[in-house]
Amino acid sequence: MKTTSFVKQIEVGEHEVFAYLIGDTQTREAIVVDPADDVDMLIGLAAENGLQIGSIVNTHGHVDHIMGNAEMKTKTGARIFIHEAEAAYLEKIGDFWLEMFSARKSPPADVVVRDGDELTVGALRWQVLHTPGHTPGSICLYQASLGVCLTGDTLFVGSVGRVDGPRSSMEQLLDSINHQLLTLPDDTLIYPGHNYGTTAFSTIAVERDKNPFLNGLWNFRLDE
């Protein structure tokens, strides 16, 4: 049976952010995850594949991931989705950060999501995994039949998200990874929020075995 699902990883802007275009070529529905920059290119890519972007999903509210929200919403009418613990922060990003990243302020969220919610894109449903740590409302998106998880700034290839911010917690981050991500099937492909690793994507098994933050080399312990 020919698949109609479409998942494309695209590095955008100057901060090594990965945006993701997810669609169904039969229904033409599409969502874009973390449209950080290069909005016209993302819209053009969708059009080239017969897709129409109807939703913007932010894995978290940091400015480097949401700085294309306003332009994308203006040009497509897409609704903005973000975790309920992150929605208020989305509207509170200060001028300092906006000026540093030459960014436009994001419009408020249209829809807030919670752990276990599902986002329907054509024939497939993507499960929302709440993974606090990098920020209180960080999320990952998991699609079981494709064996794919978009991990945002929670889990990178060979690393994990930063926890040096006032709303971050290493304890929470590692707990999220341990209980929400490492419990996924070993062959699950993980697609991160930044192009920081030696490869653009990895698997749960590889990260469990090789990621120094998860296998003890950094003296962090994951409690069962």
Could you explain the architecture of this structure?
The structure is a single chain. Helices cover about 25% and strands about 30% of the residues. By secondary structure, the chain is of the alpha/beta class. The strands form three sheets. A six-stranded mixed β-sheet has the order 1-2-3-4-5-6, with helices on one face. Strands 7-8-9-10-13-14 form a six-stranded mixed β-sheet. It has a two-stranded antiparallel sheet with strand order 11-12. The longest helix is centred in the last third of the chain and has 12 residues, at about 170-180. The N and C termini lie far apart (about 40 Å).
Concise description?
Helix content is 23%, strand content 29%. The chain is of the alpha/beta class and 224 residues long.
How would the blueprint of this fold be written?
Blueprint: E1 5-12, E2 17-24, E3 29-33, H1 39-48, E4 52-57, H2 63-66, H3 69-76, E5 79-83, H4 87-90, H5 95-100, E6 111-113, E7 118-121, E8 124-130, E9 139-143, E10 148-152, E11 155-156, E12 159-160, H6 170-181, E13 189-192, E14 202-203, H7 204-210
Parallel strand pairs: 3-4, 4-5, 5-6, 10-13
Antiparallel strand pairs: 1-2, 2-3, 7-8, 8-9, 9-10, 11-12, 13-14
